[in-house]
Amino acid sequence: MNLEELLEHIQRSGLAAAVRGDSGLGWLFPEIETAHVLALALVFGSIFMVDLRLAEKSGMTVRPIANMVNHETNELFFENLEIPAGITATLAVVMVPLAIFGAQMALG
Q1: Phi/psi at 53 (nearest 5 deg)?
Q2: What does 73-95 look like in DSSP terms, one character per residue?
């Protein structure tokens, strides 16, 4: 099966029809996009919750990469950096139901 056949097979699938709204599920695409935006907000929000200035004082080492021409790129090394438990719990509470919902939609 080449790439074109695979893409055609995906396009003819029931899940693709549901996302397009062909099967009366016109709400599915907005739901998927909403979940996508919320997931991005959670991921980037959790990244910014770790204050890098404080992290540098408590175990993070920043080393510039000198061989990158016209770039300011750094290597970050984390040693014993503590991440609040609430971040992991929040991601689990939001993402697990979304994954279950997605699996149910794909199978049924």
Answers
A1: -70, -40
A2: -EEEEESS----HHHHHHHHHHH
Torsion sign over Cα 76, 80, 82, 85: positive
Report the half-sphere exposure of 30 (CA within 13 A, side-chain side): 3
Max CA-CA distance within the chain?
57
> Is the pTM higher than 0.85?
no
The 10 Å CB-count burial string (b at 16+, else e) for 40-71 is: eeeeeebeeeeeeeebeeeebeeeeeeeeeee
- pLDDT tens for each residue of 26-82: 788 888 888 888 888 887 776 666 566 667 777 778 787 777 677 777 787 878 766
Q: State the distance between the two ends of the chain, measured CA to CA, in whole angstroms.
A: 25
